[in-house]
Amino acid sequence: MGGLPGPYIKWFLQSLGNANLHKLLDGFEDKSAQFVCTFAYSPGPGREIVLFQERVDGQVVPARGVSSGWNPVFEVEGVTYGEMRADDERLIGPRRRALARLQEWIVENP
């Protein structure tokens, strides 16, 4: 879909719901998607902003599992985030890795 919904996933889900989000892709053979998490840090005004970004590749599938947001429709290696235990989601999710990179950078750049 040319990069849609991108950062607008929240509003697509609010308007369409999980079932209709998947139907929106019916005409597309490629249903690949990425979960991208970005943390930005700046030590203060006028200072360079440093970005820490991590990604997980997956695909959009019919909703499975429980959870809110896009978790039931984002599948990674045959399992949706909605089907995963929270601990498993945290292990493979990009939030933890991006935050770990930010924390490491702060320690190395006091």
TrEMBL record:
Annotated GO biological process: nucleoside triphosphate catabolic process
Record flagged with keyword Ligase: no
Family matches, as InterPro entries: ITPase-like_fam, RdgB/HAM1
SUPFAM superfamilies per UniProt: ITPase-like
Pfam families to which the protein is assigned, alphabetical: Ham1p_like
Molecular function via GO: nucleoside triphosphate diphosphatase activity
GO CC annotation terms, alphabetical: cytoplasm
Keywords: Hydrolase
Family in the record: Belongs to the HAM1 NTPase family.
PANTHER family, per database record: INOSINE TRIPHOSPHATE PYROPHOSPHATASE (PTHR11067:SF9), INOSINE TRIPHOSPHATE PYROPHOSPHATASE/HAM1 PROTEIN (PTHR11067)
Protein name, UniProt field: Nucleoside triphosphate pyrophosphohydrolase ham1
Record gene name: HAM1_1
